[in-house]
Amino acid sequence: MSYSTGLYLLCFLPCTTLLYYLIPLRFRFLVLLASSFLFYLLGNGSLPFFLLLSTLIVYSAALLMNRLGGREKKKKKRLLWGSLLLLFGLLFFFKYFNFFSRNVNLLLGRLSSGGKLPILSLLLPMGISFYTLQAASYLIDVSRGKYPADRNFGRFLLYMCFFPHIMEGPIARYDQLGTQVYEGHPFSYENITGGLQLILWGLFKKLVIADRANMFVNTVFESWQNYHGFYVLAAALLYTLQLYAEFSGCMDIAAGSAQIFGIQLAENFRHPFSSRSINEFWQRWHISLGSWLRDYVFYGVSLSRPFKRLSQWARKRLPAHLAKWFPVTCALFLVWFGNGMWHGASWKYIFYGLYYFFLLSLGTLLDPLFRNIPGRLGIGKNGRAYRGFQRIRTFSIVVIGMLLFRAASLKTGIKMVFSIFRGFSLSVLTDGSILRMGCDGADLIVLSAGLIIMAAAGHLKERGKNLRGEIAALPLPVRWAIYYSGIFSVLILGAYGTGYAAVDFIYAHF
Amino acid sequence: MKRHPAVRYIIRSISFLCILFLLLTAAGDILAPKDNTHLGTYDYGGFYGLPKNTLDTAVIGDSNASEGIAVPELWGNYGYTCYTSGGAWHDASQSYRALKEILSCQKPKLVILETDTLYQGSGIAAAENSLKTMMESWFPSIRFHNRFKDLKAHDFISPKDYSWVPEMHGYSYRTEITPYSGDYMADTGASAPLDPTQLFYLNRIVSLCRKHHVKLLLLSIPSPNGWSMAKHKAVSAFAGSHGILFLDYNAALEKTGIDWQTDTRDTTHLNYSGARKVTVSLGEYLSQNYRLPDHRGQSGYEKWQEDYEAYRRTVPEN
Amino acid sequence: MLFHKKEASSKNAEAETELPGISRLISILESMKPGVDFTNEISLIDSHILDSVDIMSLAMDIEEHFHVEVTPLEIVPENFQSANAIYEMILRLNAAR
Predict the structure, then answer these.
(1) Residue A271 located in a structural domain
(2) Which of A360, A380, A406 is at the close of a domain?
(3) CB-nearest partner of B128 from A6, A494, A498
(4) Where is coiled-coil annotated (chain A) (predicted)?
């Protein structure tokens, strides 16, 4: 059961909401717990056994850690690393074991040794990539002393399995979500309507934009050998927009669902395409993953003892600028490798992460060289022209990255990137061949209109406008007209039903 | 003061939903096709054009139903009036909807349900599909939402004209051959229990037939890829416990004389060669077990004869 | 300055040194990001002047020059919004030693 199905929107969510507000405040979290279990059962096909296991590991480890005094630092450390090993061991097993086996077998094959690791047919427990990181963040925070361990198992369990974020995140932090999710919230008409509006917006992005763009994107990527030049560029571009529309749309449905219960989920997207640098992009795209990697990998590694020794060594042996760049780059390597790996067990994803790592490190390394060029050319760094250039540059880098991300394999991806430069011609826009790519004329018009609306909304929000609030302040006939247009756009223009292939949520597979 | 906001919210919500309902219904009138040629796949909606109260036998199910029975030959050999309203990948909820639509304009004496439809999806997917079917039957605007691309002026002003009937009365005539060899009906001990959602709609079909005093026959058309002994057992058990006749040609291939070297177009569906054999057998079965009238030569049934003659021009008797 | 024996520095020796003033901090910041008015800027994080890489670099410099250990718990926006905020954090960490 995914978030954009009738079953979720018309059965599961209304029933859960009704039950939640009928039960006394103190026990409301139980409704969420029960429905989250049901959601997991329906979505995963089996009960959340491994989720419970991870929850228990972290819950007990945190309590034990709190019980150990300040003197037993070594014990605490061993406990922390042991539990993290178990936690990530489970993730590794389900997600990466086959990748590991295949590559080891390849290597062993070359060395002509007899042993072979088995390839198991494993089904990934739903949400494991997301809840593992969540559990780890809680444990590490407790070990750092950020907050004490929680004795309340029900509260902690709900934090882990809460149905709006179990499938695709956002990856929550305990101090932000724990209390919220456990406290019963009183009925609020604004929360219900606000949540429904957000869900509607998410559905619009998923069904009208993303699933429609998917038709074009699929046509090119499924038989990439037949396409080159503009087609490939257009497919990469549309895929970037599709992924954004779908993932941020899903986040809107999740956040809207949570809001119905008075719970606020963390932001996961902040109009990323207005970013002027790759760094900024990753602070606006899949924010919860970026901040997890920053807080727990980057900071954790950079401020660790072995790492400090590395930087001291660097300061002694390397020239000043390199001395600073080197240790930070090592830490960043782990971050980006982690980012790539998290997305999937394949060289393609690892390359994807390292693609950004390479560009970022290069950027930092060469920064002293390029820093003064705009000034010397007489272009203001804060001028509109320069900002526009930065945005286009960042966007292009992202689109190439997404091309690699979507391609069937690393090899295919690289070939596709090069194929853009073969026979590139814009005449495909006018000779009608663009209409044979899975989207007919009407589809392209609807898609363009949807993209414009999405861009406009993003632009207004970037300027600080609270769109939902402003619409709610309009006179009743006007705002109802807007809501009805939204509902009708989704129902009539949505790319679902006969004539369209159902599109799975992309990030649900991670 | 405390009651007032609540009352206001309730009134607002209810009126919002009511207006939404009205708007959706109005949109449905515009979006619904004005003729019945493309109400679904496989000539699904062609029964609307049949002369009133002439249909005696309705066949519902998925693509197996549409490709498995050479409907016009039932008229040619027995004078039975029959129409197959099948649909690609139709599950029990969609077959149920087909039956409801047929009963809204015809009074058949017999309904034949091709049982492959009971295995079109299971679990959550089946539940979601049946919810979608339900929404579609309430809101034609959802069912035909994709027609926004084809809207023309007459969609807004013309009334519906559902007078079309396909020549072959719902039979989908195919001649390709893909030979099959194997024993797909071997008893492997596997079980294929009916999915709860499918079972729910099967029961609704049974009750609907009872309510309209229509006989129900469960039929399984030969299909190597589609059927199995496990499915046979499950459906037989249901039929037995509900006192419904179940005619499974897969478990009695010799009755039809099906030859898997020539009679299937893709190892799932029958081609004309296979459908003809099944129809001969089925016609015999119907004549022995049901008192269906022979309407040949009767006034009011001329269209059936016309369509049969047109059919014979396309598919010559050999 | 009496502390030329850097390799042999012990905790006692460190405790005896005076904590460098905020001017040292500002010179570190300026060499890291020239052109920024660190004396007056109060939204270093919110205005994206310093990013996470800069903060790590700064943390290492702080450890080297001020001899206090910056832990991950301290890496919050409030501690790095201005030179004053950073120096307050340093003072706090120094007192806790």
Answers:
(1) no
(2) A406
(3) A6
(4) none
Using DSSP, state whether A262 is helix, strand or coil: coil
Domain that holds residue A390: 277-406
What are the structure tokens assigned to A53, written together? 């296991």
Nearest chain C Cα distance for residue A300, angstroms: 7
Q: Is the pLDDT at A323 greater than 90, yes or no? A: no
Print the domain residue range for B250. Answer: 36-123+159-314
Per mean pLDDT, which range of A262-266, B96-100, C63-67 is the poorest? Answer: C63-67
pLDDT (0 to 100) of residue B215? 96
- B72 is written with which tokens? 């016009």
- Using a 10 angstrom Cβ sphere, with 0-12 exposed, 13-18 middle and 19 or more buried, the burial of residue A316 is exposed
Per residue in B231-276, pLDDT (tens digit) is 999 999 999 999 999 999 999 988 899 999 999 999 999 999 999 9
Burial A337-368 (b: 16+ CB within 10 A, else e): bbbbbbbbbbebbbbbbbbbbeebbeebeeee
Residues A309 and A384 in one domain: yes
Question: Does pTM top 0.95 for this prediction?
Answer: no
ipTM of model: 0.89
Q: How far is Cα A306 from Cα A277, in angstroms, rounded to an integer?
A: 31
- B318 touching A (Cβ < 8 Å): no
Whether the CB of C89 is below 8 Å from some CB of chain A: the reply is: no
Chains that touch B (3 or more CB pairs under 8 A): A
3-state secondary structure of C40: coil
In a domain, B254, yes or no: yes
- Cis peptide bond upstream of A170, omega within 30: yes
B197 assigned to some structural domain = yes
Q: Which of C6, C7, C52, C58 is best to mutate for the A interface (most A CBs within 10 A)?
A: C52
B94–chain A Cβ distance below 8 A for any pair: no
How many structural domains comprise chain C?
Answer: 1
Confidence label for A171 from pLDDT (cuts 50, 70 and 90): very high
Asked whether the beta carbons of residue C56 and residue A302 sit closer than 8 angstroms, the reply is yes
Q: What is the DSSP letter of B160?
A: P
Q: Do both A100 and A243 map to the same domain?
A: no
Whether residue C15 is predicted with pLDDT greater than 60 in this model: the reply is: no
Contact A308 C63 (CB under 8 A): yes
**Number of domains, chain B:** 1
Angle at which helices B123-138 and B196-211 pack, to 10 degrees? 40
pLDDT average, residue stretch B272-300: 94
Q: What is the pLDDT of residue A142?
A: 94
Q: Specify burial of residue B253 (Cβ count, 10 A radius: 0-12, 13-18, 19+).
A: middle
> C48 in contact with A at a CB cutoff of 8 Å?
yes
Alpha helices per DSSP H over A298-383 = 299-302, 305-317, 320-343, 347-370, 373-376
Closest CA to B143 of B30, B18, B22: B30
Question: Once rounded to an integer, what is the mean pLDDT over residues A18-41?
Answer: 95
Interface contact C53-A332, CB threshold 8 A: yes
| Contact flag A279-C60 (C-beta cutoff 8 Å) | no
Q: What is the mean pLDDT of chain A?
A: 90
Residue B292 resides in a domain: yes
C9 domain residue, yes or no? no
Structural domain contains residue A1 = no
Query: Could you tell me if A333 and A207 lie in one domain?
Result: no
Q: Considering its fold, how many domains does chain A have in total? A: 3
pLDDT of residue A114: 60
> Among candidates B124, B223, B237, which has minimal Cα distance to B191?
B237
Residue B2 confidence class, pLDDT cut points 50, 70, 90: low
